[in-house]
Automatic annotation (TrEMBL):
GO terms for molecular function: nicotinate-nucleotide-dimethylbenzimidazole phosphoribosyltransferase activity. GO terms for biological process: cobalamin biosynthetic process. This is Nicotinate-nucleotide--dimethylbenzimidazole phosphoribosyltransferase. It comes from Micromonospora haikouensis. CDD domains: DMB-PRT_CobT (cd02439). NCBIfam families: cobT_DBIPRT, PRK00105.1. Belongs to the CobT family. The lineage of its organism: Bacteria, Bacillati, Actinomycetota, Actinomycetes, Micromonosporales. Pathway: Nucleoside biosynthesis; alpha-ribazole biosynthesis; alpha-ribazole from 5,6-dimethylbenzimidazole: step 1/2. It catalyses: 5,6-dimethylbenzimidazole + nicotinate beta-D-ribonucleotide = alpha-ribazole 5'-phosphate + nicotinate + H(+). Catalyzes the synthesis of alpha-ribazole-5'-phosphate from nicotinate mononucleotide (NAMN) and 5,6-dimethylbenzimidazole (DMB). Pfam families: DBI_PRT. It is an enzyme of class 2 (transferase). SUPFAM superfamilies: Nicotinate mononucleotide:5,6-dimethylbenzimidazole phosphoribosyltransferase (CobT).
C-alpha cells in the first residue's frame, strides 16, 4: 500500500497554477492585494489540477493517538493514562478540538493507533462514515467516532532501543493511508491533522532533528509546559537517542521506527494518502510537522498537498516548517495539539479558494481597470 500510494503522488500542475494566477489578475481587486491567500489558492489549483480548485470542504479532523515508552525517562509530568482519558473527552465532545470543530463544521475521527490503556468499543471505519452522514446532518453536529487500529500498546523506550520495528512503523503508516482514503471517499475536501499522546513531543523533537539536521536543543520544546530540570532532561534524551540510533533521513521508515511514535507514523501516512488523491492537508503543530517531514522524505512531491495551519510555540515546528519551505497562516502562540491550530486556520484556506469561485472579474462587473 505504501509503495502504490507514493507512486500516485505527482508534482503540482503548472498549467492550473498559471490559470489561477491569471484569474487573480482579472478579479476586481489590485493585483497581489490578497498576499499569501493568492499564493495559497494558486498552489491548491496546482494540487487539484483545476482552476479554480474545489472548495476545501467539508473538513475532517483525524486525531491519531498513541503512547510512548520514553515516558519512563521522565520527559513529562503527566501520567500516561491521560492519553486514554483525553480520548474519552474527545468522544464526549468536551475537548478544545471539539469546540473548534463545531465552530468550523468539521467532523472528528479519533484513531487508536497505539494507546496503552484499553479503550471503549470503537466504531469501525466505513465508507459512509464521517464526514458524510446518511441523515444529512452537518458534520459538527455528529458524535465523534473512534476507530480501532492499534498496532501495539505504545512504543518502546527510544532512549533504550528502537521505538518500533520496521513492520510496526509500516503498519502505522498504512493505517494513516487507509484513514485518508476512507475520509476522502466519504466526501472530505480537506484533511486536518490531530494527535494525542502523552510524551509525544519528545519523539517529535527527535524526528525533526533527524530529518532537518538541527541540534536537538533547537528541535525540543517544553511540550505541556515542563520545568527547567525536566526540559534539560528531555533535550538530553533526544540527543542520546539520536546518537544511539543514528537514524538516516534517506530512510524515513527507519527513522520512524527508531525514534518516532505510532501517531507520527500514521500522520505521515495520512499526508501521503491525501497527496495521492490530490486533497490538501492542513497541518496542526509540531507532531504534524514532524510527521510531514517523514512524509516528504518518502515522497518529496507530497509537500504540494501541505498547508501549514499555524506556528506552534514548540521550536521544532518552526525548524520543520523552514525545512519544508512552508509559511504558517496564523501565529497565536498555541501548543495544545489535537488539531486546534489547524481548525482555527481552516477559514483562511477556505477563503483563499472561495475568492477564485465567487469574486467577479473586471469585465463581468463592469469595473474599470487602472
Amino acid at each position: 500500500m505504501l509503495h502504490t500510494t507514493i507512486a500516485a503522488i505527482r508534482p503540482l500542475d503548472e498549467p492550473a497554477m498559471v490559470a489561477a494566477g491569471e484569474l487573480h489578475g482579472r478579479l476586481t481587486k489590485p493585483a497581489g492585494s490578497l498576499g499569501v491567500l493568492e499564493e495559497l489558492s494558486v498552489r491548491l489549483a496546482g494540487l487539484a489540477r483545476s482552476c479554480p480548485p474545489p472548495l476545501p470542504e467539508p473538513a475532517a479532523v483525524a486525531i491519531f493517538a498513541g503512547d510512548h515508552g520514553v515516558h519512563a525517562q521522565g520527559v513529562t509530568p503527566w501520567p500516561q493514562e491521560v492519553t486514554a482519558q483525553m480520548i474519552g473527552n474527545f468522544l464526549a465532545g468536551g475537548a478544545v478540538v471539539n469546540a473548534f470543530a463545531r465552530q468550523a463544521g468539521a467532523s472528528v475521527t479519533v484513531v487508536d493507533v497505539g494507546v496503552a490503556t484499553p479503550l471503549p468499543p470503537a466504531v469501525p471505519a466505513q465508507a459512509d462514515g464521517p464526514p458524510g452522514d446518511p441523515a444529512g446532518r452537518p458534520a459538527a453536529t455528529r458524535t465523534p467516532r473512534l476507530v480501532a487500529a492499534n498496532v501495539r500498546p505504545g512504543t518502546r523506550d527510544l532512549a533504550v532501543t528502537a521505538a518500533l520495528t520496521r513492520d510496526e512503523a509500516l503498519a502505522a503508516v498504512e493505517t494513516g493511508i487507509r484513514i485518508a482514503r476512507e475520509l476522502i471517499d466519504a466526501g472530505a475536501g480537506i484533511l486536518l491533522t490531530g494527535d494525542m499522546g502523552i510524551g509525544n513531543t519528545t519523539p517529535a523533537a527527535a524526528l525533526v532533528a533527524a530529518f532537518t539536521g538541527v541540534d536537538p536543543a533547537e528541535a525540543t520544546g517544553r511540550g505541556t509546559g515542563v520545568d527547567d530540570p525536566t526540559y534539560a532532561r528531555k533535550i538530553g534524551v533526544v540527543r542520546a537517542a539520536l546518537a544511539r540510533h543514528a537514524p538516516d533521513p534517506a530512510d524515513p521508515l527507519g527513522v520512524l521506527a527508531a525514534v518516532g511514535g505510532l501517531e507520527h507514523a500514521a500522520l505521515a501516512g495520512l499526508i501521503l494518502g491525501a497527496a495521492a488523491r490530490r486533497v490538501p492537508v492542513l497541518l496542526d503543530g509540531v507532531i504534524a510537522v514532524s510527521a510531514a517531514l517523514a512524509a516528504v522524505a518518502f515522497a518529496p512531491d507530497a509537500v504540494g498537498a501541505l498547508v501549514a495551519g499555524h506556528r506552534s510555540a514548540e521550536p521544532g515546528a518552526t525548524a520543520g516548517l523552514r525545512h519544508l519551505g512552508l509559511d504558517p497562516l496564523i501565529d497565536l502562540g498555541l501548543r495544545l495539539g489535537e488539531g486546534t491550530g489547524a481548525l482555527l486556520a481552516l477559514p483562511v484556506v477556505t477563503g483563499a479558494v472561495r475568492v477564485l469561485h465567487e469574486v467577479a472579474t473586471f469585465d463581468s462587473a463592469g469595473v474599470a481597470e487602472k
